[in-house]
Amino acid sequence: MRYSKILNKIITVSAAVTLLAPVAATTINPTINNVQAATKSRKLTHNAYIYKANGKRANKKILRKGTYVKSSSIKKIKGKNYYHIGKNQYIKVTNTKKQNHVDNTSKLGKYVYNGGDQNKVYKEDTIKLPSGYNDTTVQEAVNNPSILDKQTAEGNKINKFVSESKADDDEKVDPTNLTTSQKQEINKFAIRLLNEARVQAGVNKVKTSQRTLKLALDVANEYQINNRDIFENGKPAHYIPGIVKAARENGVNIDDNYIEDAAIIFDIKPQTMTELKNTIYINLLSFLFNKNEYYHASDILDPTNVYDAVAISYAKESPMSHWIKMDKDTIENYTTDGTWN
């Protein structure tokens, strides 16, 4: 089935903030200082650390998923939104919001790039963010998606994939066994577009490296050799054992997923480099311009991200892209050999 004839269905799953050794589920009622709004009780949808106002962890205590905390105001710390839950105590807003993206499917319609005519004009692909779409508004949209409805509609309209070269059109690929140069080219393509989006959103560019790419490729390989996609027992989910195994083999001592965002297009097998790049492009749009959720956008635009790399796996007749990030917190708290710093 060719890409120009496809009604693409994309499912995305974001890096989840889920931590081990949680405390018992309960209702926590800390003293609230400097109340700026009506106090609300909020349910944790992920296990969560408590942070100080400087962005450092207050202690090793973990609040368990299902716990209720009371908060009255939001504070931005190092580019992320936190709820104030007590004296110099904060939790990430993303740990209290139901992530509807987990079972969300985006339909992008019949996706047509500039193929099929003899007068094809090749050019470099780009990503354009509409006016009003930036890191600040994305953070706000995590809890109120409708505020970016206009920008998301425009973003899906103005961003269209094009074939970049005749060489890409002619280069055959096997998504189950990409060559080293093809893996590098896909990563280079994805990171260039990601950084275009990040700069327009008002945040720093991320770096990529052979080490980060190896981590991404190892994660992708775990999915592929175990015939896994982003479903487990019929429900969307990351393949945590594979992520943890690959991470630890690369000096990242995690016990859960802190590093991966993922997207899949079902029942397609890219045959050329152009089609493989088209897959990456569609996946990136699904992160940025999904009117139902902005957790992915918040994650890939996170100003604390330092390194990123992207790899492809192919299982169950479907290509999946793995967007691996190493943010400052992960580097500081989970790397074991010091060389990620």
UniProtKB/TrEMBL annotation:
Gene3D superfamilies (alphabetical): CAP
Residue ranges of domain S-layer protein C-terminal in the record: 36-93
UniProt signal peptide: 1-24
The keyword Cell membrane appears for this protein: no
Domain of life the protein comes from: Bacteria
Keywords on record: Signal
Name by which UniProt lists this protein: S-layer protein C-terminal domain-containing protein
Originating species: Lactobacillus acetotolerans
